[in-house]
């Protein structure tokens, strides 16, 4: 019997992006994203306090999510650099706000510490959480927080806590499903629908959900395009 799984998943991806009447992901839009991320990328700062943050001079897009959700891998994928963000087999290695500059001071990506599995003291984790909340609340150049969620697990209790915090802080955030290559088509469709339902009842959540795989490159051009819209 033929395995139709790849075709079924490809159809889900196509429907999400190219057959979506509410959001344009045509050639012109995706080319703009590709051009934006073809520029040089460099790491510029690791901050553990508000006083050590880089100057508020360019737009910023932040990445948040559970430890081991694939934040570093996704940043590497969208920037087209293998090692710009350090990946690790040990969850919780990112313990500061890491800033990456795209182009000649065009905009920045910000990598938040992962939540859920960080091997650190309770005091350290509380300190990171305070820093993240202060950054979100007072950073005038922050355009959006991208909340990464493992498609195999869906929205967990800690993801929901993050969403509730973002709602209270009134920051625009958007859900990015990661590792979609590791889930069956029917399960992926179910997860998409559940996530969209959650977005509909969360005031600060963007209604469009991205589907990505850093391994296969799925959704990367479309995510670049969406970020380009913000700049």
Kindly list the characteristics that best describe this protein.
alpha/beta, single chain, 231 residues, 7 helices
Helix and strand arrangement:
Blueprint (H helix, E strand, L loop, with lengths): L4 H13 L9 H10 L4 E7 L12 E6 L5 H9 L17 E6 L4 E5 L10 H17 L3 E9 L6 H13 L3 E6 L6 H16 L9 E2 L8 H11 L1
Parallel strand pairs: 2-4, 2-5, 5-6, 6-7
Antiparallel strand pairs: 1-3, 3-4
Number of helices: 7
Quote the distance from N terminus to C terminus: 48 Å
Q: Which architecture per CATH?
A: 3-Layer(aba) Sandwich
Q: Considering the protein shown, what is the CATH homologous superfamily?
A: P-loop containing nucleotide triphosphate hydrolases
Q: Just give the CATH class.
A: Alpha Beta
Mean pLDDT: 90
Overall SS class:
alpha/beta
- Please count the beta strands (DSSP E, at least 2 residues each): 7
Poorly predicted tracts of residues: 87-92
At the third CATH level, what is the topology name? Rossmann fold
Rg result = 17 Å
Output the strand order for the largest sheet. Answer: 1-3-4-2-5-6-7
| Rough outline | globular
Hey, roughly how much beta strand do the residues contain? 15-25%
Biggest sheet statistics: 7 strands, mixed
Q: Provide the number of structural domains.
A: 1
Q: Element order, helices and strands?
A: HHEEHEEHEHEHEH
Q: Which percent range fits the helix content?
A: 25-40%
């Amino acid at each position: 019997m033929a395995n139709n799984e790849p075709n079924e998943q490809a159809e889900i991806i196509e429907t999400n992006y190219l057959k979506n009447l509410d959001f344009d992901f045509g050639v012109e839009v995706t080319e703009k994203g590709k051009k934006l991320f073809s520029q040089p990328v460099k790491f510029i700062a690791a901050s553990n306090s508000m006083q050590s943050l880089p100057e508020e001079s360019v737009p910023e897009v932040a990445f948040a999510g559970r430890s081991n959700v694939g934040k570093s891998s996704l940043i590497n994928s969208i920037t087209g650099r293998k090692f710009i963000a350090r990946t690790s087999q040990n969850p919780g290695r990112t313990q500061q706000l890491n800033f990456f500059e795209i182009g000649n001071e065009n905009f920045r990506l910000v990598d938040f510490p992962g939540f859920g599995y960080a091997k650190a003291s309770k005091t350290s984790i509380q300190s990171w959480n305070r820093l993240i909340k202060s950054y979100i609340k007072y950073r005038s150049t922050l355009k959006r927080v991208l909340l990464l969620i493992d498609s195999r697990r869906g929205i967990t209790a800690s993801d929901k806590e993050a969403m509730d915090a973002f709602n209270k802080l009134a920051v625009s955030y958007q859900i990015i499903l990661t590792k979609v290559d590791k889930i069956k088509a029917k399960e992926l469709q179910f997860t998409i629908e559940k996530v969209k339902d959650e977005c509909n009842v969360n005031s600060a959540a963007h209604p469009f959900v991205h589907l990505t795989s850093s391994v296969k490159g799925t959704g990367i051009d479309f995510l670049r395009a969406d970020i380009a819209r913000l700049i």
